[in-house]
Amino acid sequence: MKEVLEGSHAVSEAVRLARTKVISAYPITPQTHIVEALSEYCANGSMDAKFICVESEHSAMASCIGAASAGVRTFTASSSHGLALMHELLHWAAGARLPIVMAEVNRALGPGWNIWMDQSDSLSQRDTGWIQLYCETAQEVLDTTLQAYRLAEIVNLPVMVVLDAFFLSHTYEPVDIPDQASVDRFLPSFVPRITLDQQNPNAIGQMAPPAFYMEMRHSIQMAMQSVLEHFIDVEREFETVFGRTYGPITPFACDDAESIFVMAGTSASTCRQAVKTLRDKGHKVGVIKLKMFRPFPYQHIRKCLEQTKKVIVLDRNCSFGPGGIFAQELRAAMYASEQHPQIFSYISGLGGRDVTVDHFLEIFDRTEKADHPENESVWIGLNP
Amino acid sequence: MNQSIQTQSPNNVSLLISQSRTNTLGNKTGTWRFVRPKYQEKTAACSNACPLGIDIAMVEMFASRKDYQSALNTILMENPFPAICGRVCFHPCESACNRQFLDQSVGIHQIERFVGNWGLKNTQQHIQYPEFNGAKIGIIGAGPAGLSVAYFARRLGYRCDIFEKSDKPGGLLMSGIPSYRLPDRILMDELQRLNDDGIQLKYKQSISMDQLETFKQHYDALFLCCGDANSILLKIVGENFAIDGLNLLRQVRSQEMPTIEGTVAVIGGGNTAIDVARSLLRMGANPIIVYRRTRKEMPAHPHEIDAALDEGVVLKECLSPIELQKETNHLQISLQVMKAGRKSNEGRQTYIPDGNRRETMQVNHVVSAIGAEMDMMWRNDQWELSMSHCQMKRIADIPVFWCGDMTISDKTVTHALASGKQAVIALDVLRNHGHDEIKNACHQCQVGNGPAISFDIYKQGKRKERNNSEIANFERLNTAYFPNIPAVQVNKISQEACLNSFDEVISGFDESQMIEEASRCFNCGICNDCDTCRIFCPEMAIQWDQNNRHILMDYCKGCGICIEECPRDAMNLEVEP
Amino acid sequence: MSKTSQETISGCIMSSKYPSTDYIMPGHVACPGCGAVIAMKFALQALGPKTILVIPACCWAVVAGVHPQTSLKMPVLHTAFATSGAAASGVRAALDMKGDTETTVVAWAGDGGTFDIGFQSLSGACERNENFLYVCYDNEAYMNTGVQRSSATPYGAQTTTTPKNAWKSHRKKNIIDAMAAHRIPYAATVNIAYPDDLMRKFRKAKEIQGTRFIHAYASCPTGWRIPSDKAVAISRLAVQTNLFPLYEVENGTDYTINYQGNRPVEEYLKIQGRFKHLTENDHAEIQEMVNEDWRILNGKAS
User: Fold this and answer.
1) What per-residue confidence (pLDDT) applies to B4?
2) Residue among C25, C40, C83, C106 with most chain A CBs within 10 A, to mutate
3) From CA B91, how far away is CA B98, in angstroms rounded?
4) Fewer CB within 10 Å, N- or C-terminus of chain B?
5) pTM exceeds 0.80
6) Which domains, ranges and CATH numbers included, belong to chain B?
7) How far apart are CA A26 and CA A33, in angstroms?
C-alpha cells in the first residue's frame, strides 16, 4: 500500500511489520519520530511489544542485549552522541552475537551542538562488529530494516540501518508499505540460536581468558566475512516477495566511466543529477551509491572500479588525521586489486551543510584538472 | 548436561561465543588450603565434672527431641539409676555448666530425673544383658556401690552374687535418704533394672573379713561395698544421751517412727545432719543444726542446706559440743564457741576454739550426725592397686576390691556408683590384659581430664573418638546462636505440705518444661546436627546425605568459617599435612 | 504507618528451614571465606531454580565461572558494568513477551555496579518500577579490581585509593534511602550472619511485583584484612553495633526495623585491618555518626 511517509516512519513501519517484541530507546534528535511512533503503536495495540523508556542510550542498548539474550526480537534507534554513549555496548552486542537491529540517524557530534546530517557518528563505530547498511530513500529505509532482521538472524551479528538526519529522517516520500502477510513470509518468527535456557542452564558472556578469546573473535570475523553472500541471498528472497532489490552497491552509469563518484546516503541522489548533467556534456562519469559499508563489499567495489581511472569519494565525515573514512576504506579495498585507479578524497556537507549539484560539478572539475590526488582530503564548501 | 559451546547455523555461520554449561567441579580448590577442618567432638564441661562421666550433652540433645529411649540409653551406659540420681545427686554438672556464663545453668538434674522417670514407666525397655563370660564375682553390700558393681559387671557378662546384711537392698538409699527426697517406690522400681538371672541378691547375709578366704572357691573376684556402717562418736561426756542420726533415719524409713517432740539439737554439718533436721520437722519437732564451722564449710550439698533453712530449720554456726547433761525435762548442751583460725596451705579455712567462750543450749533431744566410718575389720593399708575411686589387694589369690564410702573421700551416691564402675572395669582389664594394663586402660576411658571413666568408651563405643585433651569450655563456644532464656523454675510442693508429710518435695518438670529446659543445653562439644557448618560453607564443601555429614576435601579451601561458627566447639582446625 | 517488627532476630538458625539443595557448585574461584558467596548461597536457596541471574562486572562475574565453566545451576547473563538495571529490564521484557510469568529475574551486582557506575541504570529501572529483584551484595569497595574505594566504602576505611593517611572521609551512601525515594514496593537490608531474616526477605521479595531492592552485607576477608574464618562473625557485629541495621521499607514510606543492636562500634572497627589506623577519637566520631543514623532511622520507623 503506497503512502507518503516521513523517513523516520519508514523505520517504525518496518519495525512494526517485523513483529519486534521489545523496543528500548532513548530519544535524541533526529531519531525522535521513530521512537515516538513505536511508542504509539505499543500503546494502541497495533504492536504486541514492550516499549522500555530507558534513561540513556547506554541503557537502551543494554536492555536490547538483555532482551535479545532472553530470545526475542529487539529494536533500538539512536544518533550522534547517543550512539557514542552506546559505544561500549555496541562492542558487547556484536561480541555476544545478538541479532539486534538499530536505526542510526547520521548526525554530527559536538561540541558545538549540531543536530544535522553528518556521517562521523556511525563511521566512528565501524570497528565494533556491527553490519552497517546506508540508505538513500524512505523506501530503502523500510526495505533495509526488514532485510536487517532477516540478515541479523542468519549471521548472528547486529545490524545498523543508517539514514541521513533530516534529509531522510524528516522528509516525506511515497513508500510502498507491504502487508503483514507478505512480511511474515519473508521474515519468519525469530528462533534464537543463543538464548538463556532454563531447561539446560547456561551462562552467557562470562570471562574468556587468552586460551579462548581469540577463537571467539575469529568467529566474529568469519561471520562478518560471510555477510555479503547472505545479504545477496536475503535480497534475492526480498525481491521474490516484494519485487525490489538494491545490492551492496548501486552503480549508475559506471560501465564505461573514466571517473566514478562514490558516496553513501542521500548525497547519491544529488550526485546522480550531477552525473546526468556531466554525461550530457560528454563526460564519461558514473556514481556508485555505497549501501553496505560493513562488511565492506570488496568484490563488488573492485569489479566496478577496476576499469576506471579516477575514483571521486565524497565523505560527509572526517576521521581527524587520515581524513575521509570512505576514501580510506576505498584505498584499502583497491590496494589488493591489480588495477589501481586514483582515489580523490573530498570532504563536504558536515554538520548539515548542504551538498548541491554545483558542489559535485566543482568536485568533478577539480578532479579532472588534477594529475593526481592530494595527500590530504580536500574540503569543499568551506567558508573563507 | 549438554556442553556445547559452539553452534552452527543451518547456513554454517561460525558462532563461537562465551557460553558455558560445564560446571566448576573440575577445579579442585582443595589445593588452595593450608589448614583443614575436622569434626572433633570434645568432652563437655558438665561431663567433665560428673563423677560418672555421663554424656550429658548427648542426653539433653535426645531429651529435647523427645527421644527418651536414646536419652535413657545414654545415661544407662554410665549410670544405672537415673531416677535416683535425678533426685539425690549433688549435680556438680550444673555448677560446671557453660550456660551459666550466658544466663543460667541448664537444669540437668531435673532432666535426668524426667528421663529416669520415663524409664521406670517404660519398662519394656529393660537392659539386654549379654551372655555370661564364665566368671563369677561376689559383692558384699547392696548399697549404691555394690549395686553399681553388679550392674556393670553383669553388662560385661559376669555372674554376680550380692550379700546384703539387712533384709532390704539399697543401703543408704533405702535407710539413709528420707522419702521426701527419694520415695520408696522410685527406689524399688529403679532396682528392677537389675532383675536378671545373673544377679542374685542374698539378704540377711552378714559377711566378715575372715570369711573372705572361703569365697575363693566360688568367686573369681570380690567387691567390698559395705559402706561406712559405724557412726562416728561424739566422744564427749553424756554422749549416751544423744540419738544416733543414721539410726534415726533408718527408723523413719522403715516406718518405725519414733516420737520426738520439742527442740532438737542436731550435731553435724553433713547431708545426714540435714536429712535428720528436715525429717524432724516433718515429725513435728523443732530442729536446730549445731555446727562447729560456718555454713560455707558445711559438707552438706548447698541446695540441701538451702532447702532445710527454707523449711524453717535453724542453723547455729561455730559451736562445738563439749558436754551433754541430762536435766529433769530437757538436755543441756555445753558448747565451745569456735572461731576462724589460719588457712591451710591449700587455702582451707580452719576453726579453733575461741578462747574460753562458751554457750549452753536447753533442748529436748540431741541427735548426733557427725559422720560415719567403715567397720574396723575392713581396714587395710597395703594395696596392690590404688585408684581414685577403688583399691584392690589380693586375698587368697583372688582380687578383692574396696569400693564406695569405704574408699572414697566424697561420700555421695554418685561417687559410690562411679566407684563400682571403676572397680569393675579394673577387674575386667586385670582378667583380660593383666595388672600392668589397668591404669592405661582406664586412662583410655577417661572422660575429659577428671577422674570419671566411661563404660561406653570401655566398650569401644562412639564416645572413644572424643578428644579428651580439649574440654569444650565457654570460651570455645559461639554463643551468638543462643538468645538469653532463663532457666525453667523447678516445681515444689507448698511449704505447708512440706512440713506435714514426707511427700516428695520437688515435683520435677512436666514434659513441656523438660523440653524447654533441655533445649537450653548448648550440647557443648558434640555435634547435634545443627548444620551450621553446612549452612555457611561458602564452598558447598560440607555435604549431608543419609545421616552422614562429610567434608569434600577436594574443594574445602580451609577458610575456617565452620570452626568459627560451630556453636558448640565440635570442630577443629588442623594444619594441612 | 511504620512499625518496629515484633520478631526478635538473634542470629539463631532454624536449620530445619534450610534446603539441602545448593545452586552453586563447589570449585568456584572465590577467595576463602567470601561473604558474597554465602549471600548468593542463601539467596538462591530462597529463590529456587526458576531464576535468571544478570551479573555485571564484579567479583561474582568471575566467581560465576570463567569460560568454559559456570558455577551456577541457573542461567546467567553476564553484562557490562553499568548495565545491570537496564539489562535486567530487557530480560524481564523479553520473558513477559514470551508469556513467562514464573521466572524471577535477579540482577546481582556489587556495590560498584549499584552505588556508582550502575546507579543510573538502577535508578531508571526503579523509576519505571521494572519487575525484577535487584540485589546489591556489598563488600564496601571495588574488590574485584583490587580494593579501590566506592561510595559504599564506609567512613574511616582504608582502601587502595583511600590509603591510610588519606582514609575515606565521606560517609557511605545510603542506598536504601535512595531506593525508597523512588517509591519502589520493597527495599530491605540483609546480612549473611542472619540467614533466617535474609531468606524470609528474599522469599517475600520474590512474591512482590515491581522493583524490589535488597542490600546484602557481604563481608570480604581479603579486602577488609580480617582472617577468613571471621567472615560471618564480622557480619554479625555489623548488625549488633547498628552499623548495618536490618530493616525493610515498603512503598518508600513504611519503615520496619528488624533488629536493635546494642554494641559499641569500636568492637567492630578494631578487629579489621582496614580500620586499624583509626584512633580512639575516630572511633568516637564514628560512634556519633552511627548513633545519628540510628536516630534518624528510628524516626522513620515510628
Assistant:
1) 37
2) C83
3) 14
4) C
5) yes
6) 28-40+529-575 (3.30.70.20), 49-229+374-523 (3.50.50.60), 232-372 (3.50.50.60)
7) 12
